[in-house]
Specification:
Number of helices: 15
Number of strands: 13
Strand content: 15-25%
Distance between the termini: 27 Å
Shape: globular
Helix content: 25-40%
Largest sheet: 7 strands, parallel
Length: 413
């Protein structure tokens, strides 16, 4: 596929933190103060309202840096809540997550009309469907600065014609953008290997991650959650945080957990998250298994997960694909060892044998063995948890990650 013409080419370099602090960059402005940069319009778009969660902190930082930000997604409570908490505008455009040609065409024209009306100087679209529709619309309107944020590759867990369609969609979305921001180094490598975009367009800010971790909020400490759930102090709690779907490895986790219980009957599995109605939704049999299991506690969606991490002894994310799992960083910041997989994105979030353990994806036996290793060695859990918190504080603190994001957009402008 031909590259974008010279008139659309944007020289971009990824900047590293300078001596000026993040707080200096984004301190709230008074009416009489001069903003850090001119008030310029920016549209940030994702497909589903629930994805707005990963933008918390980032949108507010961009607003305080002088950008007039509008958040776009399908309608939902999380769109409105995120926009309000970040102090940005919200605009809903109903968009199907799966392949739906007629619905997709309608959504595309709505995005096109909205962008034509707003006339943003910069767009940043992500997630497969909105990434495609938004970037094509922005390209047609010649938005001066077009960013495609790659948060993962859905095609990695797809097969046959769906994989082919998704790959072509990713390539088109990337072709329409000036810059493709990848959430992790392994995601960048995979995108380059698949030909999603040429190397010159692919970039990672710092060490990756969407918005870093608030290490004050996510920290070791006492939690009342165990008492509220009736878990004894001596019991070992295995935690999972996120969407309850097949691609997150939930079926493998449930099978491995039963095998662990055969050896260590004082364990609990604490599931913090919701049954996502996506293409990789859990079948009814897995939902029933969760609901009827005497040692599984499912608390559903939780807005503030910090106290739940403190109730856990480890976090397990047996995912099949990721961009960069923020829950792993949150758990590590909370002093927990982490078990995850060697898949794209996830392997960037764990230092093997230092902050946690990595296992092959979809390998039930390996997941179970890793869990048992941590359950039976409390000293290793403590050691890995302490190392994980130090690692997150050095490379993934929210201030550092958001400073890099603010400087990146300032460089574009």
């Amino acid at each position: 596929m031909a590259e974008i013409g010279d008139e659309d080419t944007l020289a971009c370099r990824i900047v590293q933190p300078r001596e000026q602090s993040y707080s200096d960059l984004i301190t709230d402005q008074t009416d009489s103060a001069r903003p850090a940069m001119p008030l310029l319009r920016m549209v940030v778009g994702v497909t589903s309202a629930q994805t707005c969660l990963v933008l918390t902190g980032r949108l507010g930082a961009l607003r305080r840096a002088g950008l007039e930000v509008t958040l776009v997604s399908s309608p939902g409570e999380l769109l409105d809540r995120t926009a309000e908490s970040e102090g940005v505008a919200a605009h809903s455009i109903q968009t199907q997550r799966g392949i739906a040609p007629i619905s997709d065409l309608l959504s595309f024209f709505r995005v096109l009309i909205f962008l034509a009306r707003v006339k943003p100087l910069i767009t940043d679209f992500s997630t497969p469907k909105m990434g495609l529709l938004g970037n094509v619309a922005a390209w047609m309107l010649r938005v001066p600065h077009r960013v495609y944020t790659l948060r993962g590759l859905k095609l990695e867990s797809s097969r046959g014609w769906k994989r082919s369609v998704l790959l072509r969609s990713e390539r088109l979305a990337a072709w329409c953008a000036h810059v493709v921001l990848c959430n992790s180094e392994s995601l960048l490598s995979e995108a380059q290997l698949l030909g999603v975009a040429p190397k010159r367009k692919l970039h990672v800010l710092g060490n990756g991650s969407s918005n870093g971790v608030d290490t004050d909020r996510f920290s070791p400490g006492v939690s009342s959650i165990r008492g509220e759930l009736g878990i004894a102090k001596r019991d070992v709690v295995l935690g999972f945080v996120g969407r309850l779907t097949r691609d997150k490895g939930v079926p493998e986790l449930l099978i491995a957990f039963d095998a662990v219980l055969g050896r260590e009957p004082d364990c609990w599995l604490l599931l913090v998250g919701w049954f996502d109605a996506a293409e990789d939704a859990l079948e009814e049999r897995w939902r029933e298994r969760i609901a009827g299991h005497p040692r599984i506690l499912h608390v559903g969606f939780v807005a503030d997960t910090a106290s739940y991490y403190r109730a856990m002894d480890m976090l397990i994310l047996p995912t099949h694909r990721e961009g960069f799992p923020n829950v792993v960083l949150e758990a590590a910041a909370s002093g927990l060892p982490v078990i995850s997989t060697e898949c794209t994105g996830a392997r960037d979030a764990v230092l093997p044998q230092v902050t946690g353990l990595l296992v092959p994806p979809r390998d039930v036996r390996a997941i179970g063995d890793a869990i048992l290793a941590l359950v039976q060695d409390s000293e290793m859990r403590l050691r890995m948890g302490a190392a994980g918190r130090n690692w997150v504080m050095r490379g993934f603190s929210r201030d550092r990650v958001l400073e890099l994001a603010v400087r990146f957009y300032q460089e574009l402008l």
